[in-house]
Amino acid sequence: MELKSPAMFIGVHGNGVISFGSGQPDLPPPEEVGSIIPQSKAFKYGLIQGNDNLRGELSKQEQFRGTDKDNFVITNGASEAIDLVLRTLAHGKVLLHKPYYYSYPPVVKAAGLEPVFTETVNGKIDIDDFDKKVRDCKAVLINSPSNPTGRIQDVKTLKEIEKLTTDLGIVLISDEVYKDLIYERENYMLSGPHVVTVNSFSKTFAMCGLRVGYLYSNDKSIVNNVIELKTHTSMNTNILAQDMAYQALKAPKSYVEKQHKIWLERRDFIYEGLLKLGLELWKPEGAFYVFPKVKNPKKTVIDLFKKHKVITYLGEWFGDKERIRLSYALDKAEIEEGLKRIGEYLKS
Fold first, then answer.
1. DSSP of 104-172, one letter per residue?
2. SS3 of 80, please?
3. Residue 260 contacts by C-beta under 8 Å, 6 or more apart in sequence?
4. DSSP letter at 57?
5. How far is the C-alpha of 326 from the C-alpha of 291, rounded, in Å?
6. For the chain, which end, N or C, has fewer CB atoms within 10 Å of the first or last residue's CB respectively?
7. What's the rounded Cα separation, in Å, for the pair 149 and 281?
8. How distant is the alpha carbon of residue 3 from its chain centre?
9. Closest by CA position to 228, among listed 54, 58, 90, 115
10. Does 120 score more than 70 pLDDT?
């Protein structure tokens, strides 16, 4: 069995398989989402930039209050937003922090850019190393909370990154798809003249399959370049899905608070469970991933799947050859059973 990429495990389920693989929320979306009935306009072309009502509602959200809807572009998930921004940069280096989300290096290269990596200490950016490597880069991509580590970057570090990238005129892409899943503090939203905030309805609202994401930037040249490129690639994002996303934003605050409580309980359960099994790992501060160290990660991932029907992801895919990644986006009973099987494997 050859471990090429996460693609080999995505969508694998049933037959007693416990999947700690894909970061796909198992919790339901807001009830408001189901109230949408397709109208005739849902089958016509829409605005490339995205539905007016959705962009307008986003501009009213707490983190964007007082902004302009024309600074938003609605995309096919956060993935398209990142891809489009990178492709508008044309050439140069992009600084990523290790461990990184497994799709970052490939999309950077696909855009004709060169990925450069800054080190982290216990999942936290080393600002001195960052400072040395950022100076000849065209852009920086920050993911906090992080996939795969679940770590959040310190506010002090984020402010230093803001200042550095502003002074150097570097585009700062902030992937904030897990911003509503932080357990230790409030989210700190990066800001600046060339900051691009990327987010999605996939994680907060459990709408992965609808593929609705967005980007926001005060730099209108970036926004306009993205719209121009999107015109010739995917065109408009699904109209019906955008209407559902609009309804999701109308959900009461209690919806997110209830989900947050469930994620926190699962975080504590799997973290404590893995510690009891003798594994070394960082305590996640956000998102829904754990990233434990294991002996012989490749053999561990293969054996857990083939012999115990447990899916985990290879840390090497995220830039760390000593670890494996587990998502706890599944029911507590399944997490418990999965931990039991991992324990049996470790004993054997």
1. HHHHHHHTT-EEEEE-EETTEE-HHHHHHHHTT-SEEEEESS-TTT-----HHHHHHHHHHHHHHT-EE
2. helix
3. 180, 181
4. H
5. 6
6. C
7. 9
8. 22
9. 90
10. yes
pTM of the model: 0.94
Q: What is the DSSP secondary structure assignment for residue 18, as one 8-state letter?
A: E
Calpha distance 266→275 (Å, rounded): 14
Domains of the chain: 6-23+253-347 (3.90.1150.10), 45-248 (3.40.640.10)
- Residue 251 carries which side chain, given as an amino acid letter? A
Parallel/antiparallel/unpaired status of strands 213-217 and 195-200: antiparallel
- Rounded Cα–Cα distance for residues 258 and 18 (Å): 24
The radius of gyration of the chain's CA atoms, rounded to the nearest angstrom, is 20
Tell me the pLDDT tens digit for each residue of 235-261: 999 999 999 999 999 999 999 999 999
Within its chain, how far is the Cα of 340 from the centroid?
A: 28
- Dmax over CA atoms of the chain, in Å, equals 60
- Confidence at 13, pLDDT banded by 50, 70, 90: confident
**pLDDT tens column, 183-242:** 999 999 999 999 999 999 999 999 999 999 999 999 999 999 999 999 999 999 999 999
